[in-house]
Amino acid sequence: MSKSILLDFTKCIGCKACEHACSEQNQLPEHPPEGKMDYKSYTTVLKRDDQYFRKMCMHCQTPACVSVCPVAAMEKTKLGPVIYHADKCFGCRYCMMACPFQVPKYEWDHAVPVVRKCIMCYDRISKEGGTTACAWVCPTAACRFGERDKLLELAHRRIANFPDRYVHEVYGENTVGGTSVLMLSAIPFADLGFRTDLPTEALPELTWTVMSKIPNIVITGGLLLGGLSWIVNRRMAVGEEEMERKKLKKGKNGGKES
Amino acid sequence: MIKKILTFILTGVITEVKGMNTKRKFIWLVFSFIILQGLFITLRRFLFGLGAVTNLSDTFPWGLWISFDVVGGVALAAGGFTLCFLVYVIGYEKFHAIVRPTVLTAFLGYLLVAVGLLYDLGKWYNVWHPMVMGNPHSVMFEVAWCVMLYLTVLFLEFLPVVLEKFHLHTPLRILRSVTIPLVIAGVLLSTLHQSSLGSVFLIVPEKLHPLWYTPIIPLFFFLSAVTVGPAMVIVESTFSARVFKRGLETPILIELAHFLQVALVVYVGIKIQDLFVRGVANKVFAGTFESWFFILEMGLLVAAMGILAIKKLRTSPGWLFTASMMVVLGVLDNRFNVSWIGMLRASHASYFPAYTEISISLFLLTGGILVFYFIARFFPVFPELEEGEEHEH
C-alpha cells in the first residue's frame, strides 16, 4: 500500500541528523543557513517557542504539481512518493506556482536549472524493508516511516492517549485531499507557518471540472461555428442571386417599355 | 560579393536615415538602444541563468515575462480571432479592409509569446517536450498545444499576403479554398486557450486574492480577450495610420467600437455580478493594495464604456483611440493582477521585475514592432499602400 512519513514534533530534539542524512543520501551541496530553504535542502528543522518542527515535501495523495506539469515530469508513484524526472522537465515552474505548500525549489543560479524537492528516498524505499534516510537516522522516532493507514492510526492513538500533549489534529490527514506526510504538534499548525486554510478537496479537481468540458466545447463550438458560417454565406449568396434576378427582370421590362 | 551586399545595406540605411525627420531619427535611436541592450541581456540570460537577470524566487516563480509577455501578450493578440469571426463566420464584410494588418499583428503577437516563453523556460531547449510527452490533466499542456496549432493557423491565414507578393497563384487558390475551415479552427483554438490561460490559476485558490480568484476565471479570460481584441485593432490601426501616413479607416473603426461596447458591457456586467455572488464586493473598496489595482482595472474599463456611450466622442478618432487604449490597459492590468499583484500577499513574496527583465520585455516588443513595420512596407498588408510603395523606390 501507500507509504507515508509521520512527524511527531513533540518528540523532536532538534539534532538535525535528518537534515544531514538527507543531504548525504541525495548528494545535496552544503545546507543553507538555518531557517532558509532552497534547492540545497530537501528538508529543514526549525524551532518555534520550545518545539522543533520540520518542513519537507508533503507528498500529497492527489498532488497539484503532478496535475499541472505539462510534460509529466512530476509523478505520483503507487508507493506514495511524488518523484521528479529532470530529463522531461522544461522549466515552466508551474509546479512551484501550484504547490499549496510552496515546496519545490529552483536552481535559479544555474544556466540549466532543475526543480529540487524531497522524493521520499524513492530508491531506498522501493527496496524490500527500506526506509527513508531521515526516518532511519532519527534517534527519537520523531520521524517514522511506514504504511499510511497504520501511521494515521498511530497518530490518532497518540492524540487519544495524550490529549494534553497534542493539538487535536493530524496535519495532512485531509488537507488538500490528504498527504503522505502526516504531522503531530503541540503548537497549533498555523503558528508553525503551516497553512490551515487549505481546502480538504484535492486541488486538481478544481481544474479538472473545467478541463473535462473541453471535448464538448470543441464539438459543439465547431458545429455551431460551421453551421453559422454556412447559413450566413448561403443567405448572402441567395441575396446576391435575387438581386441579380431582379436586375435582369428590370432590364427585360425596360426593354419592352422602350 | 560580400562587399556588394554590405554597400547595398549601408547605402540603404544612409538614404533611409537621410529621408527621416528629427522625430523619426530619435525614435530609431531609442529603438537601436533597446535592441543592443536586449541582445546583451539575452546573452547573460542564456549563459548565466534566470537568477542572473530576474528577481524571481522560490516563493514567486513567475514574473514579468509570464505576466506581460505570455499571459498579457496572448490577450492582446486576440484581435485576430475576434475580427476573423466577424468577417468570415458571420459575414461582416465591412471589416475586410483591416483583416490583413490584424492577422499580421496576431501572428507576430503569438510569435512574441513563443519567444518570450523561451526566455522564461529554465530548460528552453526542451520546449518541444509537450508535443511528445503529455499530461492531459495539465491546463498548460492544453494551452501549449492550442498556441502551437493557432500559430500555424495564423501563419496560414497570413501566408496569402506573401504568396500574392510573389505571384504564386496555385498555392494561393488552395489556401483561399480552406479559408473558412481555417478561421473556424482559429476561433475554436483561441476560445480554448484564451479561457484556459485563466484556468491556469484555478489551482491556486489559496494564493490568488479573492477579488480575482473565481471558479469562472476561464470565462473572464475569454470575455476580456473578446473585449480587448477590437480595442487592440483600433489602437493598432491608429498607430499604423500615423506611421505609414495613410488614411485612417475611421468609419470602420467606429463600427468596430459598437462591438467593443457590447463586449465591454457583458464582461464588466458579469464581473460585477460575480463579485456579489461570491460575497467579496466589500473587498473592492477595502483600501488594500489589491483593492486599488482592482479599482484601476475596472475603472479603466468603465471610463472607456462612458466614452463609447457618447456619440460625439465615439465618432472622434482621438477619443475612440483613447477609449480603446484604456480597454487595452485595463485588460493588461487584469492579467497583471491575476498573475502578479493578486498572488503576492498569500505567497509571502515581494516581487518587482528587475531592470533586465523589463529590458527584455521592451526588447521583444520593439522587435515585434520593427518586424511589423518591415513586413507592412514590403508586402501587401495595407492594400492602398502598395502604389505609394512603388513610387518611393
Explain the overall architecture.
The complex is a heterodimer of chains A (258) and B (393). Chain A is of the alpha+beta class and 258 residues long. Chain A has 2 domains: 3-208, 2-Layer Sandwich (Alpha-Beta Plaits), CATH 3.30.70; 213-257. In chain A, 37% of the residues lie in helices and 14% in strands. Chain A has helices at residues 17-25, 64-68, 94-98, 122-126, 133-137, 148-161, 204-211, 214-257, and strands at 3-8, 44-48, 51-55, 74-76, 82-84, 105-106, 115-116, 143-147, 181-184. Chain A has a 3-stranded mixed β-sheet with strand order 8-1-9. A two-stranded antiparallel ribbon of chain A has the order 2-3. Chain A has a two-stranded antiparallel ribbon with strand order 4-5. The mean pLDDT of chain A is 91. Chain B has 393 residues and is mostly helical. Chain B has one domain: Formate dehydrogenase/DMSO reductase fold (Up-down Bundle), CATH 1.20.1630.10. Chain B contains 17 helices and no strands. In chain B, helix 5 runs antiparallel to helix 10 (179-199) and helix 6 (99-120) runs antiparallel to helix 16. The longest helix of chain B is centred in the C-terminal third of the chain and has 31 residues, at 317-347. In chain B, 43% of the residues are buried.
